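Q: I'm teaching a short session on how sequence maps to structure, and I want students to see two examples side by side rather than one. Could you give me a first protein with its sequence written out and its structure tokens following it? Keep the formatting plain so it prints cleanly on a handout.
A: Of course. Example one:
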Amino acid sequence: MKKTNKLKLFIGIFYIILVSIFIIFIFSKFSYEEIASYKFIQLNREYLVNLRTSNLFLLGLLFILLTIFWVFLLGFGSPIGLLAGFVFGKFLGTFLAVLGCTLGATFLYIFAGYFFKESIKENFLNKFYNLEQKFKKNELGFFIFYRFIGAIPFSISNLIPLLFNVKIKNFFFGTFIGIFPSLFIIVNIGSGLEKIIRENEEAPKILELLLSSEIYTPIIYFFILIILAFLAKKFFYNRF
């Protein structure tokens, strides 16, 4: 237990140090006014587009590695989806975001299972004991459903399956399939933002953004997905 607590402390300190280094690096290169400016976003959009054109494979590989690292450090998927859509477009962006998040979540699952399994059981088993029989009945099927519903924060949902000893292969494929719909919608929003920035020299107003089909269409899909997830949970939950 003492070793586990020391490891937790080390990971926490390591995470804070990494975040701090990243923030210091960003603000040493650019001021807040630059980062927040529309022109800064435009220029970096052009840089990323040129980089994608000249070396798509390398950029895609780097994106996947950064996504794995982000998810492993308990990051969530929405920023990844927006960035993927902004840089890579709808379809390639979705594939890269889903693959990166799935790999990161799987590595976190394996790592946490090795070091923190008992601690996780102590803190979460009483809250989620009702899911045990559902996982045992149809592990992969319920895990896809569990990911699709998405009612639990992504970082926590990566750890809860440890309570029920979900197989790694089921965790991987269940995550890949289950998070695909929601990430596809988020990636579409990122892709829409990139198109709007590309076509507008001046920053559009919020209302103009919301009335753009590139933005309101995936938002509508997002609300439809929420409704479907709610209905699935309400009417099909007991079937598993």
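Q: Perfect. Now a second example for contrast.
A: Example two:
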Amino acid sequence: MLLTMFISLASCAPTQRTNVILFIVDDLGWADTAIYGSSFYETPNIDLLINNSTRFTSFYAASPVCSPTRASIMSGKHPARVKITNWIGGQQKGQLLQADYERQLPLEEVTIAERFRDAGYATGFVGKWDLGGDGFLPEQQGFDVNIGGHAAGQPGSYFFPYEHPRNDFWDVPGLQGGREGEYLTDRLTQESISFIGENAETPFLLVHAFYNVHTPLQAKEEYTEPFRQKAKFLDDCQETIYTPESGRATTRRCQNHPVYAAMIQSTDESIGAILAELQAIGIAERTAIVFVSDNGGLSTLAEGGKWMPTSNDPLRAGKGWLYEGGIRVPFSIMWPGKTEAGGIRHEPATTTDIYATLQELAGISQAADDASDGISLVPILTGEADSEDRPLFWHFPHYHGSANRPSGAIRVGRYKLIEWFEDGSIELYDLETDASETRNIVTMRPEIADTLLRLLRDWREKTGAEMPVPNPDWPDDGASGK
């Protein structure tokens, strides 16, 4: 019934101002849904949504970790420009001392919520915020309603009362009145449904930012057990489950984690419930829905670690890395009457583009002083224009628990270059023929490498990107640690 409903919406032009719902799933990998290639996870509602949307195959998070990407979505600016280049709280060091970074999204930034609120929209935020604590919460950044958003980047627990047994920093606030066994994803779904119902007669922007599928890995047991049984029959997971990465990390190469699969199922059911509510109250035909993840799936850990829950195959590595597995993410837009159901776009795009895209979806003119680093994807969605081979940049001047080291990257067209800040070494890949980034062609195409490296370094200078500095306590024995 839902499938029939959404197919019919594709030909219905909205007659009132367009509502916008932005789903942000935390740590969902590029291949973590059936429509993007998973044969283990079960995502019928997400698949339904994306099948009736236009999806992008080469869409990127602006960072391989959460806070910077979320800053790019909220501000439309590259994380390097707003100085949030690490997940807020990350403190690792090695041969280099990590670059300085902000611990909150500055109030001077005009967020997407402020732009919508100023245009007469009701604005609601539900779920993970991770862009600052008191004084920098969603309600200080343009949202009329904030449910569950606070400084922490993960919940204390996924079960009521959503508290950590030893550290109340992680406790999810504002969710009193629950019951024993209540699951966080289900509770936040009901909160979003309530917001939608209360604002059904007015235009609204709702950001539903899942805590799923971030750690702690916790799921409903009745969802987990069927996946335990399913995993027993995965013959291709019996041999090469883990492979080395760059001589210092291990990558999971198989999707067979029952708890993670159950967390994805809860996420999928949440989206299905919200879609059904839009239909039930008669506003689906004037509601645009955007679906995205904030970084690649957690598949790679420092050597010896093997608790990572997913695989991004065929993409290389995962969360924390600037290889494709760390930054390429699922992305789709369903805009009734405008986007093509089942449409596919291969143009590279990024989370910095969401800011301008949402405004154009809603008919909000961008302010003259907007300094967005992204573009509106609406002309691409509607077929009015093709994208150019614009450069896309990444800046991650930090160490990470995945064993990635400070680095930067650029993609232009089919080519992608990675620069390692410890020793200045570079890697070049042709993503058109090698999406798995297995063949470094820097010595075969030195002219392309030189051009991209120059563009990347010029961009960092113009952006004012903070850089790591040598660690004076690092042993001077010639070892790079890379």
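Q: What should students look for in example two?
A: Point them to this: The longest helix spans residues 258-280. Also worth mentioning: The chain has twelve helices and 19 strands.
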